[in-house]
Design goal:
Largest sheet: 5 strands, mixed
Distance between the termini: 54 Å
Shape: globular
CATH topology of the largest domain: Ubiquitin-like (UB roll)
CATH architecture of the largest domain: Roll
Number of helices: 5
Oligomer: single chain
Number of strands: 5
Order of helices and strands: EEHEEEHHHH
Radius of gyration: 16 Å
Strand content: 15-25%
Length: 158
């Protein structure tokens, strides 16, 4: 076992950590940092429940070594809201009924945030591509698509 010591920036907060160099980012975020909003679904890059943003880009944290995240800004679902106020994506998902079991929701939120930063006025095709790394077994995606569109309108001020 090779111990790796580093500082990871998670949601703008630096964490000085030591962990086995073979550990994935998901396990370090959940177990060392203590943020459990990022979910462990498949541990195989199939479901997107573990999606986080690294320097604004969506990444499956189950397949990304934590050591590789040194020097990058890691954003988890906890980092999007401000105090008790939900982020527009979170609120729109609730309002549209795009949340059922909720397991995929953190990953959907992170992928949506990345999508809307890249493409502020996404088409249906843009949304499908932007969320293609996230599986939802409950909603059928229609309400999620509706929430993404509503969030885009809200954020653009239109």
């Amino acid at each position: 076992m090779t111990t790796y010591s580093t500082t990871l920036s998670v949601n703008g907060i630096p964490y000085s950590l030591a962990f086995d160099a073979s550990r994935n980012l998901l396990s370090v975020i959940r177990n060392e940092v203590g943020l459990t909003g990022t979910k462990e679904g498949c541990d195989d890059c199939e479901c997107g429940a573990c999606m986080v943003l690294l320097d604004g880009h969506p990444v499956n944290s189950c397949s990304y070594l934590a050591a590789q995240a040194t020097g990058k800004e890691i954003t988890t679902v906890e980092g999007l809201s401000s105090g008790d106020e939900l982020h527009p994506i979170q609120r729109q998902l609730l309002d549209a009924g795009g949340v059922q079991c909720g397991f995929c929701t953190p990953g959907m939120i992170m992928s949506t945030d990345a999508l809307l930063r890249r493409t502020p006025e996404p088409t249906d095709e843009d949304i499908r591509i932007g969320l293609s790394g996230n599986l939802c077994r409950c909603t059928g995606y229609a309400k999620i698509m509706e929430a993404v569109k509503a969030t885009a309108v809200e954020l653009s001020g239109s």
